[in-house]
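The passage that follows is intended for readers who have already worked through the single-chain material. We present the inputs for a multi-component assembly, then the predicted structure in tokenized form, and finally a short commentary. You are encouraged to pause after the input and sketch how you expect the pieces to fit together before reading on.
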Amino acid sequence: MTAAQLSVAFFLQMFFILAVCRLVGMAARKIGQPQVVGEMIAGVLMGPSLFGLVWPRAQQFLFPPDSLEVLYVGAQLGVGLYMFIVGIEFKTDLFRSRARSAAAVSLAGILVPFLLGAALALWLIRVPGLIAESVDLHEAMLFMGASMAITAFPMLARIIYERGLTGTALGTLALAAGAIDDAVAWCVLAVVLASFGGGWGGAALAIGGGAAYAVIITLLGRRALAPLGTAAERHGDITPSVLAIVLMLFMFAAWGMDAIGIHAVFGGFLLGTAMPRGQFAAQLRRQLEPFAVVFLLPMFFTYSGLNTRLDMVNTWELLLIALVALAAAIGGKGVACWAAARLTGEDNRTALAVGTLMNARGLMELIILNIGLSKGVIGLPLFSIMVLMAIVTTLMASPLFELVYGRHARAAGTLHKIE
Amino acid sequence: MTAAQLSVAFFLQMFFILAVCRLVGMAARKIGQPQVVGEMIAGVLMGPSLFGLVWPRAQQFLFPPDSLEVLYVGAQLGVGLYMFIVGIEFKTDLFRSRARSAAAVSLAGILVPFLLGAALALWLIRVPGLIAESVDLHEAMLFMGASMAITAFPMLARIIYERGLTGTALGTLALAAGAIDDAVAWCVLAVVLASFGGGWGGAALAIGGGAAYAVIITLLGRRALAPLGTAAERHGDITPSVLAIVLMLFMFAAWGMDAIGIHAVFGGFLLGTAMPRGQFAAQLRRQLEPFAVVFLLPMFFTYSGLNTRLDMVNTWELLLIALVALAAAIGGKGVACWAAARLTGEDNRTALAVGTLMNARGLMELIILNIGLSKGVIGLPLFSIMVLMAIVTTLMASPLFELVYGRHARAAGTLHKIE
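Having made your guess, compare it with the prediction:
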């Protein structure tokens, strides 16, 4: 396909993607689910698991092989910018007020699913096609552990915020624990990816470079970026020049982390945490979020869905693995977090709600799985199994939250309604 | 290159593009030129005319051939969205208050450059490599006529708006004449493109389809889209769902116009003119413009610049053609508009200012030239010559405006300062 043909195909493809994501998203919201659940499912429906199965020619026409590269680049930009926005909203001062239970919940929420995931890898590595042959057992254990330990932190934060729970015991606890968990899981993933960097030299570059970047951003980032905030406050809004500088920094960070063998999303996220807060953060989000979330993220869900082959989960053993993975995910995260919260003295409702919220994997899980797939750690069947796990744990969150916490809190008048 | 390598290259490329566009743009503004002039020049500097000439290996590294498709798709999306935003801001009720002189100026501003451009085609078609051999003389005349008659309408509108001239004689006149001129020039271009549609069937599809789309949008669009405005007003802002619907419509319109053989930008522009006005338009612009203008448009300027081969303008004849084309552009547009304004009774300063503003070609010219190049109407040398003309006429506008109008108006206190 020529560039001009690609661009025509792109417009039609995006029309289709936006339409399907919106429709399934609307249907999801009708039954009390967040938009993101709808888009996760929409991506799978557009892939070989449904659309490609029932009408392969139409699917080939809408997603010709040549067009997938553009979709991939758009998807990477989308998740990179999304993680940047998550970084902008990341608050590091949450931990203090509820330090003890937050530490317990986050430790349980990391350790138990990590151990279960690592144990699962012992089984998975013996089933052909699930984990790449070039992957060592300890790498497989690290990757499966990290991917089990992920929490849909941005979704959790949005639920807490939208429901007006920010200042409550539940809100503080869930936000702090979710933030710690995701930070740790991403660090483990970074180590896994670094170890794929082609021998010791590659691993040293990845770990050293990633650590150096994290240290520089954490120590100097805030101060170095402060002038951007001052400039935005002087003008009353973020000028095109300031936005261009922010995007430049983002591109450089994303490229750097990609180039040393980690992943663009780390660059974006860490840069986001160092951005000036207050007015500046709000305005930056307002300028970037609509396009990133409404336009670019559906490209990611679609690309991810095109790689999801539920038809490959076609033996009793694979089905069993899917069920065990799901059980490990729920038991390791949801149950462990509930237990940890109870043991540190939270009441049962709060503990149940924390477990429910922490258990949702959401978009974050899809990001880590796609990284694993593209770096050749896991194969398509395992990818599909884990996507299923991500969707189910995310689907569970809203009704369970309503059941264990929402209806009581609403009766007590302490829960905001959301549209 | 694999998709993953492309995405790494993309981040680095965008860092470079954003940096160069911002730096040259800042330099341009230092000398009183608008940002767009800087970005036009930045694009050319990144291409084979400078960067590729002095450091070909670095240029190849930053712009590997495989990466150009992504750049092209982003560029098309950028100009499509930009024209959509121009459409959103397009006001059709300007003409009445100054109908006589507006009609005269716009007629002169179309007819004279069109005739000069068409006449120039008589010469160009005999010089090898300038116009494709498959192009008939009358098609070449139409294309050269249309591309001479273009006005940088969005830039003109922005200057008028930023300087607080919206309600003045000059403002009304220039906006009305610029709008008519661009509308007519784009119609001519649509006819030219339609005639390339592969025989009579293709031409009929393009002309018929384009006309049908224009009629439907004009007659039914406003009413059909009104509910979007109501929804946005009810929520106080454009929700992600409404934004998604708008983007879906945009994708469909862009795809449709591309698919029938015209061009995505028409789809975007016409759709924009039918969007609800007021609050809705302002919010939509606020959500789309930052990303489209700061991120996507630089991709267009770069892609255009990568095709600009000033080194190909290397014979005395080509140099002469460049000078004649420039003279025809300035004489046909600037001088003719000034004369028409004078003849319909405007004072000399207003007439000079109108001529100056109408003469700038800006981004609009680059869009039409890139369409001509990608559809195989013109070759690289003529493309480069016309890019040069676009840059020079755009560069002229600000200092000339200051000379003939700005300093007097500022002395009289009727001109806003802009930062």
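Commentary: The CA atoms of residues 46 and 189 of chain A lie 28 Å apart. The radius of gyration of chain A is 21 Å. How closely did your sketch match?
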